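[audit] Reproducing an earlier prediction to check determinism. Same input, same settings, fresh worker. If the tokens differ from the archived copy the diff job will pick it up downstream; this log only records the rerun itself.
[audit] input (388 residues):
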Amino acid sequence: MRALRERLVDDVEFYFPTGPIELSNDKGQSDYSDEDSLDGSSITWGWWRIDEYGDSKTLEPKTSYEHLASYIREHGPFDGIMGFSQGTNLAANLATFVTLPKYQNYFGQKPFRFGMFFSGYYRALAIDGETHIMKIEMPTLHFLGKFDNVLSTESSTTLIRICEDSQVLFHPGAHHIPSPIAYVEAAADFIDFFGREDWPLVSKNISLIIPTPKPNSLTVSQHTSMHHLGSNNNHLEKELISKIVSRTSKNGVNIVLSNLQMFNEYEDILKNKVSSLVITDGQEPKSFDESVHYVSTFKQALNKLKAREDSIGRIYVIGDKRLLTLGLMCRCTKRIIAVTGAKDKFQMDPSAKSSQIRQWTGQSRLKHLSTDESGEPVTMKLQMWERL
């Protein structure tokens, strides 16, 4: 967790309660090495012994509950909860417990705003002799290792299924927390988005438009491992995007949300077609127009959309990597629209083939025939991916 802690050192406090049950490397326990122990010893700790958790037995780890309740009352309450492996099972159950007033008082914790699970699974734990199998309604982010030989992808679906608002991200590793910067940034953005305070939720569906990438540009969302090649037919791309965003809607005016750089690039096709909402991040616009609304942050943009949603027809987001990432995490995001050349590739992570965990599904919906600058016929393709 060091990379994520360093990334958020000025904004987030992390707490790491240690399980109260002393473990050994006996049969039935996780295969930890001495290197996994902070003090270099061979003693490891957990929340229960796996060999006490048979298929026919419902586990009630009372010692762990008492230990955790004491810890939260001393250091909490907390905004979010994170777990790894066995810890995800305890964290998920705790997230359901604290939605009930009785256990809010016992643990000293109100419902969490978000959850983050690494190599997770779920099995109902008992408390006071009862199990409480409920949907987890808070936003959750799940990291799964493609080569995890401890918990299979199928095992992780048990946790993903009970989470109503989940995002799933695969990493090319095994049973560990990924540390490459792409995954750290994804986790940091997720915590920043859901951890601070309640964000305004817009009832309108939001569509993310991903243009073909320009040289040295970053247009790929961290949360979906998408890959597509570039195209030099910029005017054709603009022509197609113009058609997408300007489709009339009976519900009112369409709005395109973008950052300042992207708005400047597509200003000629946006100005007269839709109402534009531009996030400046403190930059000074080169010009002002009545149909353009400038805000400083993504949250301010959501507030503005929320205030106007009764008069809005469709909302599109077209921007850089960070804006697309935030857009994907916004719960009202419904679809991704990719504009590609005829030979370009745009696909979801091929490892996410299981219908139980695949978060998006899509197909080519439109072919746009036109000509390039030399008059040669060119086909541009539009792919749409919709949230399941």
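[audit] rerun output stored. Observation attached for the diff report: The chain has two domains: 2-195, 206-387.
[audit] end
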